[in-house]
C-alpha cells in the first residue's frame, strides 16, 4: 500500500527545470533517503511535493489516496503531511514553548494542550527546554525543536531536508534515533534528504539516487558501486 505516490514529476523554478520525470512511492512506516550530489534536485523534490511557493511542478502526486498535485502546504498539513526545511525551520527569537504553540496555531487551546502533552511523552527534552530561547540552544537542540514542531501535528509523513546539517556526530545520532523511534512507535514515514550517506544507512529502508534531476536508481542496497554511479 502506497502512502505517497509520485508519477512523472517534473519541477523547477521559473523557467528552470530541475527535476525530470521522477516517479517513486513509499508506504507507511518507512524511511526513504534521497541521495545525490549538490544540484541533483533532492530538496526541490520535497518542495515540489509540498507545494511550496516558487516551485512549479507537473505530474501526479497522490498522498494517502488523495490527489494532492495542486494542494497548498496548509491543506497538506491538515492532511497530516509535514515539511521541515533545512534553513529557518524555527523562530529563533521565540522560546521553545512559543515555537511549539506557533506550530500548533490551527488548534484550539484544549486540543493544543493535549497534543503538547503527547509530544512531551515522545520528546521529554523539549519540556525541559520549554522556557529557553531557541537562539540559545545548540544545533542539535534546535533541530529537535524543528522536529517537535512537525511531530506535534501527528503526521503520517514528514519531508525532512538535511536533518543532520551542521550537527556534530552525537547530535546527528540522536536525531536519527528519534526518527526511527517515531517511525516504530507511531508509523510515521519519512522522506529525507541527507548528505551523510553512510551515517544514515542504518535507519534507511528505501534509497533513491538522483543525478542532474533524474532518478537513476531506487530500492538499491548501499555499496561503493552504487555511490560512484550516483555521485560521479
What does this structure look like?
It is globular, with a radius of gyration of 17 Å. It is of the alpha/beta class and 232 residues long. The chain contains 9 helices and 10 strands. It has a 6-stranded mixed β-sheet, with helices on both faces. A 4-stranded antiparallel β-sheet has the order 2-1-4-5, covered by helices on one side. Helices cover 36% and strands 26% of the residues. The relative contact order is 0.19.
Number of helices: 9
Count of discrete domains: 1
CATH class: Alpha Beta
Count all strands and give the number.
Answer: 10
Radius of gyration: 17 Å
Q: Would you give the CATH topology?
A: Rossmann fold
Proportion of residues in helical segments: 25-40%
> What's the arrangement of strands in the largest beta sheet?
6-7-8-3-9-10
Unreliable runs: none
Task: Specify the CATH homologous superfamily.
Answer: P-loop containing nucleotide triphosphate hydrolases
- The best one-word shape is globular
Oligomeric state as shown: single chain
Amino acid at each position: 500500500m502506497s502512502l505517497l505516490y509520485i508519477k512523472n514529476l517534473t519541477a523547477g523554478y521559473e523557467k528552470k527545470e530541475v527535476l525530470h520525470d521522477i516517479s517513486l512511492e513509499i508506504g507507511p512506516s518507512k524511511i526513504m533517503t534521497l541521495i545525490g550530489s549538490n544540484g541533483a534536485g533532492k530538496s526541490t523534490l520535497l518542495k515540489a511535493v509540498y507545494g511550496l511557493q516558487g516551485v512549479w511542478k507537473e505530474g501526479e502526486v497522490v498522498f494517502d489516496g488523495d490527489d494532492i498535485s495542486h494542494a497548498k502546504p496548509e491543506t497538506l498539513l491538515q492532511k497530516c503531511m509535514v515539511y521541515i526545511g533545512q534553513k529557518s525551520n524555527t523562530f529563533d527569537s521565540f522560546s521553545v514553548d512559543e515555537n511549539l504553540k506557533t506550530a500548533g496555531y490551527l488548534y484550539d487551546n484544549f486540543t493544543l494542550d493535549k497534543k503538547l502533552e503527547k509530544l512531551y511523552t515522545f520528546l521529554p527534552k523539549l519540556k525541559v527546554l520549554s522556557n529557553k530561547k531557541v537562539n540559545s540552544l545548540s544545533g542539535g537542540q534546535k533541530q529537535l525543536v524543528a522536529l517537535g514542531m512537525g511531530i506535534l501535528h501527528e503526521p503520517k509523513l514528514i519531508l525532512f531536508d538535511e536533518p543532520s546539517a551542521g550537527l556534530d556526530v552525537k547530535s546527528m545520532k540522536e536525531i536519527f534515533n528519534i526518527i526511527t523511534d517515531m517511525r516504530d512507535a507511531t508509523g510515521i514515514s519519512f522522506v529525507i534528504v541527507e548528505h551523510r550517506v553512510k551515517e544514515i544507512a542504518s535507519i534507511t529502508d528505501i534509497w533513491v539516487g538522483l543525478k542532474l534531476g533524474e532518478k537513476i536508481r531506487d530500492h538499491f542496497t548501499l555499496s561503493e558501486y552504487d555511490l560512484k554511479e550516483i555521485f560521479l
